Amino acid sequence: MYNNKVLLIDDEKETLNEGKEMLMSQGFAVDTFESGTDAWKTFQNDFYPVVVTDLRMAKKSLDGIDVLANIKKVSPNTQVIIITGNGKPDDPIKSLNLHAF
Q: Rounded to an integer, what distance in angstroms lies between the CA atom of residue 55 and that of residue 84?
């Protein structure tokens, strides 16, 4: 059975709203979270074949690399896409080593 759910995570509300609108216009069911920690808690109870997460988030939250690592431990086939506006030079390598899409 086809699952069109996407989990979208970003600590910037405007980015979440724009991303959700774009994905929904393409037929995806989108759940959004401003916190990597809250998104991870939800992911543990519900399956998402695709997760799109910001790399850097508020200090009180799991960041995108943490979300990616946690998801891949329990659901290696979930595709995790990392987005960022302010990454560090080694972030792409870390992401790819954890099998980001």
A: 5
